[in-house]
Amino acid sequence: IYLKRYKAYLAAGDNENALKYFEKYSALKDSLQADKSYYNIDNFLTKKELAEKEKTIQSLQTEKEVIVQQNKQKEVKIKKLIQDKKQLDNRLDEIKKKVKLTSQELEILRKNKKIKELQLAKQRTILIAIIVISGMILILLFVILNRYRMKKKISEKLEEKNKELQKAYKQLDHLARTDPLTNLSNRRDMLEKLEYEKHRSRRSKVPFVLIMADIDDFKYINDNYGHDAGDYVLVKLSNLMRNIIRKQDIIARWGGEEFLLFLPETDIFGGKILAEKIRKHIGNTKFEFKGKKIPVSVTFGVSEYNNKLSLDECITKADKALYEGKRKGKNCVILGV
């Protein structure tokens, strides 16, 4: 049976099953030889057939060895393929990881790019805002500067006008307080200064002196030498007295040919000394107008202000002393007692 199946598989080309049944046949044969039944079996086969069978068996063994060798080679190849497959799988995993990392990196790069774009957009917006704000600031500064310049110009003009007004006020005040002919203080200015000095004298309890001076026969000078000559006498006499008195003393044209001198911190005897000094200096001065000599003399009345008298009383006292001097012959100094 084994031999028939062997032949059938061999004819069919199924070497693997043919080899399997041949091995069974060989095992059976060996067992029969041991039982001395071999010869009985072989009696059924011719020698030629037996030789062919042995040749076939050798061929099958050779093929078996070849198949075994091939199987080993296949196993080696399979193992190698498995190893290669593992390596490829590992490499594929690595590649996948790398691809995954690359994808993440790309995503990060995209996000970074987007962030940079947003930052750039923000910077552009900020830059535009800065430019716009800077432009507005420049415009505002220009407007402010322009207004400042205009205001400065207006202020300078106003200041100039104020200076002119102050100058004009000073000139008006000077004119209001100054005699235009002699450039001395006038009656109004002297009264204001005396009012201030009156309070100061009361506080300090220090007296001051008033001297009333009047040009003798001034009407005669105007009538005989002319009013221009009279004006000349008034101006020259004013300058003469101004050069003799102290810096703190004040002289005013009281009216017409009358003058009032104010001597602060001076008693009546000091006033008399100054009045005599002025009188003598006038007597030694030459008055000449248009080649004509003009006789000029002055009479003086001196009074001292103290807390017992009012300012008007003190002025009246000096005036009375002046007219007493006129009655006594003029060109003298009389004390108001």
Structure keywords:
two-stranded antiparallel ribbon; five-stranded mixed sheet; alpha+beta; 337 residues; Alpha-Beta Plaits; 9 helices; 7 strands; rod-shaped; 72% helix
TL;DR?
The chain is α+β, with helices and mostly antiparallel strands. It is 72% helix and 10% strand.
Give a verbal description of the structure.
This protein has 337 residues and is of the alpha+beta class. Among the domains are: 84 residues, no CATH class; 149 residues, Reverse transcriptase/Diguanylate cyclase domain (Alpha-Beta Plaits). The chain has 9 helices and 7 strands, in the order αααααβααββαβββαβ. The strands form 2 sheets. It has a 5-stranded mixed beta sheet, with helices on both faces. It has a two-stranded antiparallel ribbon with strand order 4-5. Strand 6, helix 9 and strand 7 form a beta-alpha-beta unit. Helix 2 crosses helix 4, helix 6 packs across helix 7 and helix 7 packs across helix 8.
Helix content: over 70%
Instruction: Let me know the CATH homologous superfamily of one domain.
Output: Reverse transcriptase/Diguanylate cyclase domain
Rounded to the nearest angstrom, the distance between the terminal CA atoms is 195 Å
Radius of gyration: 76 Å
Strand order, main sheet: write it out.
2-3-1-6-7
User: Proportion of β residues?
Assistant: 5-15%
If you consult CATH, what is the topology of one domain? Answer: Alpha-Beta Plaits
CATH class of one domain: Alpha Beta
Helix-strand makeup class: alpha+beta
Q: How many β-strand runs? A: 7
For this entry, what is the oligomeric state of its chains?
single chain
CATH architecture annotation of one domain: 2-Layer Sandwich
What's the total helix number? Answer: 9
Shape verdict: rod-shaped
Mean pLDDT: 84
What's the helix-strand series? HHHHHEHHEEHEEEHE
**Main β sheet profile:** 5 strands, mixed
Poorly predicted tracts of residues: 36-45
